[in-house]
Design goal:
heterodimer; A: mainly alpha; globular; B: alpha+beta; 5-stranded mixed beta barrel
Chain lengths: 177, 161
């Protein structure tokens, strides 16, 4: 995992930029996509109640890592989506949460591993465990990752703010209210 | 969808999430033996190529070796040998590393082919946890700025934003 500042900043940049092309993807949906970007790391609930503890208490093998995966992204996004009141919001909510969660899984892929392969055997679950080589760009504690992510988010924030009103019909309409 | 159907659907999906964690725990997802399995029964993997994630207990620059603890239930100590100088210099007890290598000496040692340092020292863990808490607050704050949580119906947009 990269730390959450990086995940949140990259998701903010990704969805804000996507909003330049999709009229309905405004700031409140960007906020939903950003929440999606930390869903896979809900497996850190294991720091509070460990999987070993659950296994010992119930007799059923349990590993939180199961939700830090493609399957987990779909299920958690669906749960989040159902918490929206309106059906149209539920559909968009699912799309944004899932995209955010996938951005998280993708950002985690190029991390460095001692055997030189990606940890896709974990992240692809329940799809087949296939492990291509990793470029090994970073490890979780590398400070430069957050620096780059914050810089990218800032550039997108400024670009978004100073976009000419002509290409920004939705915002013009809203400020006119 | 009425409230009751949504509630039922959420419960089903929560069970599906739990199911994923159970399936994941029973599935064998890696070609090489994993840290937990090796820690539980190191003898079974003697002489094999392994990938082990472990916490650094002691660093010995003179012998280029590092003591790590791997696994959680049970924990087991391994001596990682042939660790490159640069890696030895960068790590301290309380850090965390990954080792790719061969289990040797009655499975008490790992002869390292490759070592990756995930966390050099406890300060690296602090950095990751604190930035993550901050990132989580940013995400939650951004969401609650635009959405209201109504306990009866769920997430409702704030009309004025």
């Amino acid at each position: 995992m990269a730390e959450w500042v990086s995940h949140v900043c990259l998701a903010y940049a990704l969805f804000t930029a996507a909003g330049w092309y999709l009229d309905w993807l405004d700031k409140r949906w960007v906020a939903v996509g950003v929440v999606g970007s930390i869903l896979p790391d809900l497996d850190r609930l294991g720091l509070l109640v460990s999987g070993d503890f659950i296994t010992a208490a119930t007799g059923v093998p349990f590993e939180w890592a199961g939700i830090n995966s493609v399957g987990g992204a779909v299920v958690l996004s669906a749960i989040g989506a159902l918490l929206f009141e309106r059906p149209s919001h539920q559909r968009r909510g699912f799309l944004l949460l899932l995209s955010g969660a996938c951005s998280h899984l993708l950002a985690d892929l190029p991390q460095r591993y001692a055997d030189g392969l990606m940890l896709t055997n974990k992240y692809l679950f329940p799809l087949p465990a296939w492990r291509p080589p990793t470029p090994g760009w970073y490890v979780s504690a590398d400070r430069w990752v957050a620096v780059v992510a914050v810089a990218v988010a800032l550039v997108v924030f400024l670009a978004d703010r100073y976009r000419t009103p002509a290409t920004q019909p939705a915002t013009v309409e809203r400020t006119g209210q | 969808m009425t409230r009751r159907y949504r509630l039922v659907a959420v419960c089903l999906l929560l069970s599906a999430a739990v199911g994923l964690c159970v399936l994941y725990a029973t599935a064998d997802r890696s070609a090489a033996p994993e840290s937990e399995a090796i820690a539980a029964d190191p003898g079974a993997y003697d002489g094999q190529q392994v990938l082990v994630f472990g916490d650094v207990v002691a660093v010995d620059a003179a012998s280029q070796s590092v003591e790590i603890v791997a696994g959680t239930d049970p924990e087991r100590e391994f001596t990682v040998e042939s660790v490159p100088d640069r890696t030895i210099e960068s790590i301290e007890p309380g850090g965390s590393i990954q080792v790719d290598g061969v289990l040797a000496e009655d499975s008490t040692a790992i002869v390292a082919a490759e070592v990756v340092v995930d966390y050099r020292h406890p300060g690296d863990f602090r950095y990751v946890y604190l930035t993550s808490i901050f990132g989580g607050l940013l995400a939650a704050g951004g969401f609650l700025w635009f959405w209201r949580i109504d306990p009866r119906v769920g997430f409702v947009p704030r009309g004025d934003r």
